[in-house]
Design brief:
The structure is a single chain. By secondary structure, this protein is α/β, with parallel strands linked by helices. It folds into two domains: 101 residues, Urease, subunit C, domain 1; 281 residues, TIM Barrel, CATH 3.20.20.140. Helix content is 30%, strand content 25%. The strands form two sheets. Strands 1, 2, 3, 4, 5, 14, 15, 16 and 17 form a nine-stranded mixed β-sheet that branches. It has an eight-stranded parallel β-sheet with strand order 6-7-8-9-10-11-12-13. Helix 7 links the parallel strand 11 and strand 12. Helix 4 crosses helix 6, helix 5 runs antiparallel to helix 6 and helix 6 packs parallel to helix 7. The longest helix is centred in the middle third of the chain and has 17 residues. The structure holds (4S)-2,6-dioxohexahydropyrimidine-4-carboxylic acid and zinc ion.
Length: 399
Amino acid sequence: MIVENARFFYDGKTVVEKDILLDKRIKKIGIFDGGSEERFDAKGMFVFPGLVDPHVHLREPGAEHKEDFESGGRAAIAGGITTVIDMPNNPQPTTTIKKLKEKIKLAKKSLARVYFHFGATKNNFSEAKKAEKFEEVKGLKVYMGKTTGSLLVDEEEAILKHLKNFKKTVVFHAEDEKTIEAMEREKMKRWPAGIVGIAKACALGKIARGKIHIAHATSYEEVMLAKMFGATVETAPHYLFLDESAMKKWGGVNPPLRERADAEKLWKAMSKIDCIATDHAPHTKKEKKEGAKGYPGLETSLPLMLTAYNKGLTTLDELEEKMAENPARIFELKGIGRIKEGFVGDLTIVDLNEEWEVNGENLNTKAEWSPFEGMKLRGRVKAVIKEGRLVYQDGNFLA
Ligand code: DOR
Ligand code: ZN
């Protein structure tokens, strides 16, 4: 297939307008006339490498009523995300090799490429060591505080042991459980648990010389703290675009949304943030009313960030870096995250100017609702090519 008249960052650097010849891999970049190849005209659009989301909850197995690899994979593709890393907090968590193998098999039906974070428990060190050898496993997830599911590792010794044991990236849900509980007893806001959690994770990471990544930082201060220690850090669009008032309407999320001023200040940390991840955490509307924490986000993340670009809050190269290159580098996804000869043949083609309004009912996630409901966005995913095949165009799946 040839994508003609594509405007994109060549090798992540300068914007060029060229044709891209690709199949499973990007074969050649240049100007190609003639030939019998299937063609897609990208004139007037902008082309990103297929985006990478290092933090999603696709819920299978065990909570398929919230999402499964089929619906979640479609949601990712519709959001311009061709590669995701799935979290281990299923009802029966991904903390053994048996569970991991089961999940790897189930994920084959996803339209998006799926990798996995293995789950840490207080004592599954030998399983984690075995999991590290799997090509499909890209990280170990440590939950320092309680959230959806039963995973929790709130003891320093166990965290330290995992950090010394597991040599790929260790991802932290860095909310300190004891601080969460203390704040709840005092009926105070929970955000100090994030500061304590990040400080603890980073300090232990330094001692163990491990590679650590802080999930869903919610504030400027959290980002700076993580970066001060040399950790990598992600945030999610809900911390940038929403504030605590959204939790009254859509229910909560862990970590909770912050005050309006915090959300605004978080934009000032953009140059330090390594990844924009969705933390796609679908729940049914009924479960949300009953207190389930988390928001679906796969289909709104890139359009929200393009809207921010259109408002001058970020740049296209920042977006490519934080939504493709950096997550691919941090989690060692080789040959993913750039438009370059030899890289995987995934492209996300967007209209930078198309205006549309978020309507949860039109989304592919089983959640069928969005905390961004009714928001008017500018920037839309028009087509997605995965390994040289057009899989999505104008709201329709072709594969
Ligand atoms: O809000 C959240 N939802 N935070 C988490 O840490 C987990 C996630 C989920 O799996 O529902
Ligand atoms: Zn999460």
